[in-house]
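Researcher: Please predict.
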Amino acid sequence: MKKYILTFTAAYVITMLAVVAIESLFDLPSGTSMTCLIVGGFSAAASFVKDRQRVPDETEKKTLVWGCLLASIIISIIATLISIVVFPETLAFLKMAMTQLPSWVWLIAIAFTLLIHYLILALSFGWIAKYFLPKTTV
C-alpha cells in the first residue's frame, strides 16, 4: 500500500504547488486543500486499479484512506511551517485566530475538515476507483 500512498503524496504536493502558483499569478482565493485531496485520491486509486485490475477490498481501502489522510495532514503541517517562514505575518494571523476563537470551535472545525477529507478519500478508493477499471467489451 506504500506505493499508492506515495503516489497520493506526490500528486497532492504537485497539485498544491500548481494551485498555489496559479492562485498567486491571478490573485485568486485559496482553495488548495480539496483540489489536492481529489487529485491525490484519484491518482492513487487509478494507480491501484491499473496495477491490480480491481478496486481495493475493504481492508486495502481502509489502509489507503487512513494512510492518505495521515499523509495529507503531514503535508499540511509542513506547508503551514513553510508559510510561517516565508510569510512571517502568517504566524501573527494564526495566533490572532487561535486567541479569538474558543478551542471547541477549533475542535469542531478540525473534526469537520477531517471528516470531509476522509469521505473524499473513501469515495476515491471506492466508488471512483470503479471508473478506472478497464471497460470490457461483449
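Model: The chain is about 85% helix and 0% strand.
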